[in-house]
Design a protein that fits this description.
seven-stranded mixed beta sheet, single chain, four-stranded mixed beta sheet, alpha/beta, globular, disordered N terminus, 438 residues
């Protein structure tokens, strides 16, 4: 269903794609001597501007002309349309979790790790996120991130509580934020957790993953030889999903409307002071420092769960060299520049908003020397225990199926979490079989 939906959406957008891309800053296909680079960012955002600076620096160093296209909404759908027209961009900077989907459609060129200049300076964990199920690499690692808790420090101090070190502490802090008027306005208008719990792009599963991994659980597990088995019904996975269901249903510490929200809405909910605990990646740190105030927020590690840990979701972006390009040498050169110390520093953008490199993957780049905000160190330390999506042929439908199930048990408080996760195991087993990965 998930894969068919993408195809249907792509077809319906056929007549309007050119207009959409023009609105995103594309203006039509690049010329044969211009390297076209797509990045999943909002047009005219600070991140899009950082990507343009990276491309301009590459042009200055190499002489290769570039054109950056920033698209956020329906990014994968628009790539599908370009593929159907046999006109993929030359370079795509996109999530590590999208590797399997793009590889199975034949969009990606293989990357020789040993032949990529500077490839030996990139972290092994980041390279792992560029590996497909066949054990080969189909992207150059560009950016990494792990997840942590961004907390309203002023609220925590107002209610007189310490930083959470256990899940019990976390639940207690969320309850205090919900019931003790931490913003001091005399109204019952605050929540503990803000959660992007909708199903779009699998957000409910994406959010839950960090607590699942912090508890030693998983959605699928490797069984050897490039094969996997479903593990959503594992007691540790169930325990994590049930903990969050309790926050939605029993404690009622989650922001209203969360089961329909994506991250764009949830960022705003946190900024507006409607909730005080956000489990999220480092890409919003500079934004929140500016919009909320640096003295009002703190970053705290995700507490390990009662049955496992430590762990957190690991993600990032790869530079993908797209198939069919007439500029293969330039593709490789851009990837090499992007992972170089200079490219990584440009992408990090110091402490300012608009970083497209969150944690550097080049081990010769010192994060502390580039960023003065010590809160970045919490994310960097969390990355040591980060868990990436496994190298199944296509992770996207697994994340989507998981999100649909998790969203349903959070939205319906009468749902039996164990029964739902056991049923999800059956779905994931079928999906793995269809991908010949079980």
């Amino acid at each position: 269903m998930y894969r068919l939906l993408g195809a249907v959406l792509a077809a319906t957008l056929s007549a309007t794609l050119a207009v959409t891309l023009t609105g995103c800053g594309s203006g039509g296909p690049a010329s044969d001597d211009t390297l076209e680079i797509w990045i999943r960012q909002l047009p005219d955002s600070d991140s899009a501007k950082t990507a343009k600076r990276l491309a301009d620096a590459f042009t200055k160093a190499s002489g290769v002309r570039t054109k950056v296209v920033a698209i956020f909404d329906d990014f994968e759908t628009k790539l599908n349309q370009q593929a159907s027209q046999r006109h993929l961009p030359d370079i795509v900077i996109n999530d590590t979790a999208q590797l399997g989907a793009m590889h199975t459609q034949g969009w990606l060129r293989e990357v020789d790790r040993n032949a990529l200049a500077g490839g030996d300076k990139l972290s092994d964990l980041a390279w792992k996120a560029a590996m497909a199920g066949d054990g080969k690499y189909y992207g150059a690692p560009f950016s990494a991130q792990a997840f942590a808790l961004v907390i309203r420090k002023d609220w925590r101090e107002k209610v007189g509580m310490e930083q959470p070190r256990t899940w019990q502490d976390l639940a207690a802090l969320a309850a205090a934020f919900t019931r003790k008027d931490p913003d001091g306005d005399g109204e019952a208008d605050t929540s503990g957790f803000v959660i992007p719990a909708g199903t779009k792009r699998g957000y409910a599963s994406w959010y839950a993953s960090s607590l699942v991994y912090a508890n030693g659980g998983d959605f699928v597990r490797p069984t050897g030889g490039g094969k996997f088995a479903a593990s959503a019904g594992d007691p540790r996975t169930v325990e994590a999903v049930r903990f969050l269901q309790d926050q939605f249903c029993r404690a009622r510490t989650v922001n209203p409307g969360a089961v329909s929200n994506d991250t764009t809405v949830t960022h705003e909910v946190f900024e507006k002071g409607q909730g005080g605990i956000y489990l999220v990646g480092p890409y919003v740190l500079a934004r929140f420092v500016k919009s909320i105030g640096t003295e009002k927020i703190e970053v705290v590690p995700v507490p390990k769960g009662p049955s496992g840990g430590p762990g957190t979701l690991g993600e990032g972006e790869n530079v993908y060299l797209m198939a069919g390009s007439g500029m293969q040498d330039a593709q490789k050169k851009f990837a090499e520049f992007a992972v170089s110390p200079e490219g990584q520093r440009i992408g990090m953008n110091k402490d300012a908003n608009g970083a497209i490199v969150r944690l550097p993957v080049n081990t010769t780049v010192d994060l502390a020397a580039e960023r003065q905000d010590p809160r970045w160190k919490v994310f960097q330390e969390a990355y040591a225990n980060a868990v990436y999506a496994p190298p199944v042929p296509n992770w996207a439908p697994i994340r989507q199926d998981s999100a649909d199930t998790i969203n349903a048990v959070w939205a319906d408080c009468s749902s039996d979490v164990k029964a739902a996760m056991d049923a999800l195991d059956t779905e994931l087993t079928q999906e793995l079989q269809s991908q010949k990965a079980s």
